[in-house]
Design brief:
Blueprint: H1 2-11, E1 35-39, E2 46-51, H2 55-72, H3 77-93, H4 95-106, H5 110-130, E3 138-139, E4 146-154, E5 157-161, H6 169-180, E6 184-188, H7 194-210, E7 218-220, H8 225-232, E8 237-243, H9 246-258, E9 262-266, E10 271-275, H10 281-293, E11 303-309, H11 310-325, H12 345-360, E12 364-367, E13 386-389, H13 395-398, E14 405-411, H14 414-422, E15 426-427, E16 429-433, H15 437-444, E17 453-456, E18 468-469, E19 472-473, E20 480-481, E21 490-498
The structure holds nicotinamide-adenine-dinucleotide.
Length: 513
């Protein structure tokens, strides 16, 4: 394994102790760490370490980005799109290597690692088309011989803070769009996955170099949350797009709000599938199990709760228990396994703590959890996906635990099920399994799901890039990726042009001299 990974690191230009685009020792009191050591949750081995950016490095990066913006904003958007097209091609060439590194550094299955890189390629394709479609509206002026229209201009520096669970795709969702819109980017990846970030930076930097584009258009600063905090407090960064926990989002919103900057927040979810008595139960089973155990329950869209109609509750429960019996847990690079490890031992502790809290509140486990031990599980990060019967108002059920713990809740009427589904602080993804048109339409109506994503006969996880992605309430309200999410990366300007030889005032106001 080590040898394979070493050749992959070499191919991607990630060298041990690679300081990427930052050098130096520490943040002089801002951060407690000097370097980020990346241990694989797959086998617990140290892959490599990377130096943390110093305050001085950070300043240099911002200054370089400011200078690069002066040119980049004048490059015609379709030409910027062409650069992103070349970046997409470079990702195609590196898909296997980058996907494998994602799997090894983060712990998701190889298929999901490749899928994550495919998502990057897809958003590049989307951004290329978008680069010719940054449309503004034209309005009719109330004044004669006047023309009114709106334009969209770039913001400047976009700061991207990302989470460990989608270590590369989330950056590309933001960067591909922000770049075709004419912005420059500074990325602060998760401290848990620095190597995949370095690999991405190398891939895009080569494309820039080949096109004689300034390095400062796309930047990387490595570090823990202290580096993120400096960025959120920096008035030179026009937009902070932050993906991570609700706790982080509240801190980022407060810091950026205090300087009246812009934020785009993509935070935690607490996603449910309603399984109606009119559901196709076999299809529902696949959606529920993949949603709950895929990426070891570490997706923002992972299925946390199943809200099941009482007439099918016992039968579906039985199917679930049987399916969980068949799950193979182990090395995610071995494609015969269904479930890989959690990201680190802290995540394992949080998983165990949630199980304890659930039991203390009265939860009844029908599939028990636990930590796996033995040669194949030497990292100590492999846990058993588990299932508990609960009440929706348990404190632990209201909280997002980033692990494969699935809660079952029984309902009688669809109105009650929708109230349960909406009865949590988060509002990211939701789904109903039903073949009944009336039920499906009610769920999607204004009286239905209050989430940013609402699906019918599809689980909660696995969104496509074409739609706007994000959620309501404590999920933060931001939208990324497809549809018109690009607008968050631009500023709107309304222009009125008078081509008459008089100066009529709006609202017919008279002002004669
Ligand atoms: P986290 O909040 O611990 O960290 C996310 C990032 O924020 C990291 O880069 C971290 O260094 C930085 N950070 C933390 N505190 C900060 C602060 N005060 N100021 C600035 N930066 C700060 O999250 P995590 O454990 O890496 O990821 C898991 C969480 O991310 C889950 O809650 C999950 O639901 C969420 N998530 C949401 C989406 C979405 O699109 N809604 C996508 C992926 C993950």
């Amino acid at each position: 394994m080590k040898t394979d990974i070493q050749s992959i690191l070499d191919q991607l230009g990630v060298k041990a102790d690679n300081a990427a685009f930052s050098t130096g020792s520490n943040w002089g009191g801002v951060s407690n760490i000097e370097s980020l050591e990346s241990f694989s949750p797959v086998d617990g081995k140290l892959i490599a370490s990377a130096k943390v950016a110093t305050a001085e490095d950070y300043n240099q990066v911002v200054e370089k980005a400011q200078t690069a913006f002066l040119d980049w904003r004048t490059v015609p958007a379709p030409k910027r799109g062409d650069i992103i097209r070349q970046f997409g091609d470079a990702l195609r060439t590196n898909k296997d290597a980058l996907g494998t590194l994602v799997s090894y550094e983060m712990g998701k299955s190889l298929q999901e690692g490749f899928g994550e890189v495919q998502e990057m390629i897809d958003i590049c394709d989307f951004a290329v088309g978008l680069s010719r479609q940054l449309y503004g509206l034209t309005m009719h002026s109330e004044r004669p011989n006047h023309r009114m229209y709106e334009q969209w201009h770039p913001l400047g520096i976009v700061g991207i803070i990302s989470a460990f669970n989608f270590p590369v795709a989330v950056w590309s969702w933001n960067a591909a769009l922000a770049l075709v819109c004419g912005n420059v980017c500074i990325w602060k990846p998760s401290e848990k996955t620095p190597l995949t970030a370095i690999a991405c930076q190398h891939i895009i930097a080569k494309v820039f170099k080949a096109n004689d584009i300034a390095e400062g258009v796309c930047n990387l600063v490595l570090g823990d949350r202290a580096v993120g905090e400096v960025m959120t407090n920096d008035g030179r960064v026009a937009l902070i797009s932050a993906t991570g926990s609700t706790r982080m989002g509240k801190e980022v919103a407060a810091a950026v709000g205090a300087r009246l900057g812009k934020t785009l927040l993509e935070l935690g979810g607490n996603n449910a599938i309603i399984i109606s008595e009119h559901a196709d139960l076999d299809m529902s089973l696949i959606g529920a199990v993949f949603g709950a155990v895929g990426t070891a329950g570490q997706r923002c869209t992972s299925t946390r709760r199943l809200i099941i109609q009482e007439n099918v509750y016992d039968g579906f429960k039985e199917k679930l228990v049987k399916a969980y019996d068949q799950l193979r847990i182990g090395n995610p690079l071995d494609q015969s396994n269904h479930v890989g490890p959690l990201i680190d031992q802290d995540a394992v502790a949080a998983y165990l703590d949630s199980i304890q809290k659930c039991k203390a509140e009265g939860g009844k486990f029908i599939v028990e959890g636990g930590v796996l031990t033995g040669d194949h599980y030497s990292s100590g990060c492999y846990v058993k996906p588990c299932i508990a019967e609960v009440k929706n108002d348990y404190k632990i059920v209201q909280h997002e635990t980033f692990a494969p713990i699935l809660y079952l809740i029984k309902y009688k009427t669809l109105e009650e099920a929708i109230a349960l589904q909406n009865g949590v602080p988060q509002g990211l993804s939701s789904a109903i399994m039903t073949l009944n048109l009336r039920e499906a339409e009610l769920f999607l109506s204004s009286k239905g799901s209050d989430c940013g994503i609402a699906n019918v006969n599809i689980g909660t996880s696995g969104a496509e890039i074409g739609g706007a992605f994000g959620g309501e309430k404590e999920t933060g309200g931001g939208r990324e990726s497809g549809s018109d999410a690009w607008r968050a990366y631009m500023r709107r300007q309304t222009n009125t042009i008078n081509y008459s030889n008089t100066l009529p005032l709006a609202q017919g106001i008279k002002f004669d001299l």
